[in-house]
Amino acid sequence: MKNSIIQIKEVKKSYKDIEVLKGVDFEVEQGEIFALLGSNGSGKTTMIRIMTTLLKADAGRIVINGFDIVKNSRNIRGSISLTGQFAAIDEILTGRENLQMIAKLRHLKNPDEVANALINRFGMSEAAGRRVSTYSGGMKRRIDIAMSLVGNPKIIFLDEPTTGLDPEARLEVWKIVKDLSAAGTTVF
Ligand SMILES: Nc1ncnc2c1ncn2[C@@H]1O[C@H](COP(=O)(O)OP(=O)(O)OP(=O)(O)O)[C@@H](O)[C@H]1O
Ligand SMILES: [Mg+2]
Fold first, then answer.
1. CB distance 14 to ligand 1 below 6 Å
2. Distance between CA atoms of 62 and 64, rounded to whole angstroms?
3. Residues whose CB is less than 8 angstroms from the CB of residue 21 and which lie 6 or more positions away in sequence, other chains included
4. In this predicted model, what pLDDT tens digit does every residue of 80-135 receive, in sequence order?
5. CATH number for the domain harbouring residue 152
6. Are residues 74 and 99 both part of a single domain?
7. Is the CB of 20 under 6 A from ligand 1?
8. Which pLDDT score, from 0 to 100, does residue 2 have?
9. Closest-approaching ligand to the CA atom of 21
10. Which atom of ligand 1 is nearest to the CA of 39?
11. Ligand 1 atom index nearest CA of 16
């Protein structure tokens, strides 16, 4: 195998007797934007949950950022972030507080600065002090993606990041993804 940042070989997964992943192979290079396509129910979220250590594969070999998922899932978790298919933000907190919370959970030394930098980068200065429950769907998605960038993870997993966004917000997300890739971050 090459030294790809994501190496997937013969991965299988069944839920009871439904075989969802039947031997999946692919590799992703560092800094690449990799899109996994498939119809509803084809197993995309399942594959992402496996690669982000939330779910165990039944068979196959998975190496992420040089770490074998069976032996080193903890190290993998330290080098990735996951933005799920549905926004996972604390609606009671403000946008800024959500970012600060993730920075603290990631044990960063300067959570306030990290939060402010992302708020500026995502053009959310006006909304940052408001509770997320008052945000529109696009704004929630934006803060959700901003949260996944806290701590500069090497690989970012986004599960359908633009679903439900209007065309403008969609373009914005693609731009964020391209900028991340240009800076060397791998975006799945
Ligand atoms: N926890 C579970 N228990 C049983 N079956 C499941 C479970 N999670 C997913 N499945 C089934 O596995 C298949 C793949 O689901 P998955 O969510 O990975 O698909 P997907 O490609 O992400 O679909 P979508 O485009 O709708 O998000 C589906 O048939 C689904 O019903
Ligand atoms: Mg899905």
1. no
2. 7
3. 11, 12, 13, 14, 43, 46, 47, 50, 57
4. 999 987 778 999 999 999 999 999 999 999 999 999 999 998 889 999 999 999 99
5. 3.40.50.300
6. no
7. yes
8. 63
9. 1
10. 25
11. 4
Pocket test for ligand 1, best of 12, 16, 20, 82 (most atoms within 8 A of CB): 20
Angle at 54 between CA 42 and CA 6, to 5 degrees: 70
Kindly state the average pLDDT of the residues 128-156: 91
Which ranges in 83-157 belong to alpha helices (H)? 95-105, 111-121, 137-148
Q: How far is the CA of 14 from the centre of ligand 1 (A)?
A: 10
Residue 84 in any domain: the answer is no
What is the per-residue pLDDT across 23-79, written as a single tens digit (0 to 9) for each? Answer: 999 999 999 999 999 999 999 999 999 999 999 999 999 999 999 999 999 999 999
Q: How many angstroms separate the CA atoms of 141 and 164, rounded?
A: 9
Same domain assignment for residues 114 and 139: yes
Ligand 1 site, residue 46, Cβ cutoff 6 A: yes
Q: What's the total number of domains in the chain?
A: 2
> Nearest residue CA, atom 29 of ligand 1?
41
Residue type, 106: R
User: 17 CB under 6 A from ligand 1?
Assistant: no
